[in-house]
Design a protein that fits this description.
The complex is a heterodimer of chains A (278) and B (267). Chain A has 278 residues and is of the alpha/beta class. Chain A contains nine helices and twelve strands. In chain A, a hairpin with a 6-residue loop joins strand 1 and strand 2. Classes of the chains: A alpha/beta (278), B alpha/beta (267).
Amino acid sequence: MSKLVNDDGRTHIVSPLMRESLVDRRVARTTQTENELAILPDVTLVSLGGHSIFDRGKAAIVPMADEIASLRGKHKFIVAVGGGTRVRHTISVAVDLGLPMGGIAQLVGAMEEANAVFLNALLAKHGSIVMQREHFWELPLYLETGMLPIVISVPPYHFWEPPAEGPIPTHGSDFGVFIHAEVLGMKRIIFVKDEDGLYDSDPKKNPNAKLIKKSTLSDLLENMPEELILDHTLFSVWKDARHVERIQIVNGLKPGELTRALAGEDVGTVITKEVSRG
Amino acid sequence: MVERNLLESTLSGSPMTSAKPQALDYSPEAMLPDVKVLKIGGQSVLDRGRAAVFPILDEIVRAKDAMQMLLCTGGGTRARHIYSIATDLELPTGLLATLGGYVARQNARMVQMLLAKHGGIYIMSDDFEKLPLYFKLGCIPIMAGMPPFGYWEKPSSEGRIPRHRTDAGVFLSAEVLGAKRAIFIKDEDGLFEDDPKKNKSAKLIREISAKELLARDLPDLAVERVVLEYLPRARYCHELQIINGLVPGNVTRALAGENVGSIIYKS
């Protein structure tokens, strides 16, 4: 039974954090535990790049949608979509207009919504559904009935995007996909892009760029390539994360790569992290 | 290979994944530069009930016709209770952030009920676009201070309490609206070198820069650490003011721009 205490003019509920300053590091550390509950550990998050898949139109989207439809029921997965070139255009115009950074962050999700609708239009007959982004508690229903949940990627930081050095929001889609997987205790994320994986420089500009087939988070943090296929913020957050063990980047323009990745094959680039887990 | 159908813009072709800021012309415009953003503390004010809350709201109502105010609420002891149980269940930070927001929302609704007869109106976190209307009508918009990060709150290496709580939400609200100062109404005279509730000889700091305060590396602080990390990069909200709302007149003086309490400034 909970007890109330009000000997200092404030009414407290008795709990280990009662009366404590949550800013106090000593207090915060008492909330650290060795393990963390994994809510949906057997689900994989599949991210479809806006720039790399959707901006290429039918020729890239339809084969990808067919492949996703063929995987339904064989794996539990959620598809997250990016926004692509329209996001860049939005930010470019917003920066020119001098909108505040939080205002810029508020705008971009709409461009991802459009891609979620495109994909859903193609996959509806196979049981897809555009899920309201934070309706996580509906996921067991969708996944157990073999549906294909589709979400947008950008995190809902919106007007509250923290200030950064430049005008461009630093909490973008790759970060959003990562946190989505992490908070639900998923172990794997597959990023579907238009390159064979992670390179040591941008292969679109440098024909000699070398593909990195395997890497670890600690190696990447020490030796971060200048031009990355995934957002920098993702890697800095992965450091403090508990659940995501494996991030794979595959080429969505090559039929079958996503299928092989979902089956656990090491296609594309595989980045791993040693995770302590109980 | 099928080509990408790209829109031409200053960012087309840019990978946008680098940690380095891009060189872009950017002269930001403040949305509502005259708005005063205030936070009413959860544990420090609202958990004290009527005795503390009513006099503060009276001062706010007296000032309301002369200025635009956005009121935000903290969480308090119920949020601490939730965080304790969630820690016991070993839930991830993102769940704590989501659940902590419920308490701040309850508090915002309580304040709204009390201020309804004076134009108090409860707003959701994405209602900023309606603020010009509310101000024009003489309303006092009230919202939960918790930022909407929720499940997307970053995990931390120092425990599972979300790092962005209601102080961060209030500061980030002030920043996006273009307010120069965020005012935190608490139950102590300002920022102290140690927790004044536990250490009676703790010294009050009247003015300090965010950088200096972070450099002191105090184990406890009157505001969330992330706010001090963001303040040096802020474009608008350059000052945090911490005042004692239990002292009559302090809210009025702070709203008039007086430096009561403590000021933490950008640089």
